Amino acid sequence: MAHLESMRYRKQPGATAIYDDATVISGMSTGSAAGTPVATPRGDYDDDLATPNNDIGYSYEKKDLDYSERLSTGPSGGRHSGASDRHPRLRITKNQWITLALIMVVASYVRLWRLSNPGNVVFDEVHFGKFAGKYINGTYFFDVHPPLAKMMFAAAGKLAGYDGVFDFKSIGLDYAAAGVPYVGMRLMPALLGLAMVPITYITLAALGHAADACALGALVIAFENALLTQSRLILLDSALIFFTGLTIMFWALFFTEAHRPFSNRWWAYLLLTGINLGNALSCKWVGLFLVATIGVWTLKDLWEKLGDLNISAAQYTKHFIARAIGLIVVPVTVYLFWFQIHFM
Prior knowledge:
It comes from Linderina macrospora. By secondary structure, this protein is mainly alpha-helical. It is 56% helix and 5% strand.
């Protein structure tokens, strides 16, 4: 009481203030209600006039508030479980889809225009085009990188009509003179690079950003020079970045389902995160940085759940096992699967 009386704040008759400690302070005229206990603060001053204002009394009462109910009731009055309100839910409107479609039209022009230029072997095409040919011919080779992206180029070359004879021996060799369907092989990384535009948009939306921020992010990816250049050549990086983007997108979507743990969609997003994590690691060893990123993020999430009193020990164990399956067992299985295909 003494502490409350010493507080300086604007005094208004009939005003009510509820503080975090669940104390209700009601102001009223000293003679407004008979028999109502009042307390007249000493040294009470009005903030504006800096003059004594002792003609108003104040009554104090404790209001019972269910603390657990306050925690589990959202701002709109709806119930939610634990800390799930911290995670946004995916909402993409019709206008946003239209905006994304327009950005995709622009990005398609930028990514696919004059894909045949230059018509010569460029930079590391000398390696990865050659490996594609060796896959098609069934010739043994050794490379420091995992096999998935190279096998994807082999499949694209096979579909485009590449017979594996052209050996990409040196930089500058003329594709047209040798009759190599290199445009079809370059089309695969170009499409993967193009796919990064909607992946970026959906990821930002899943993380709770505004429509303008999602559109800006997609436009940046559409025009970024380094991504644009590498997506027009027979290089491993487009496949690596594509699977990295898919991993982050599904991981962000996974958290939009935090309010419905162990639902079908929750499991789907978790498993798709693990599958694409394994795919990224199967393209280049740089994918290990993605493994570290998802790993640290997972540890943080599990640590927060460990301190959530709304989650029982049994539920926490289920969360732990689910993430171990989705983010350890599944990626390792995918990685070994692509190596099995490689050896076959």
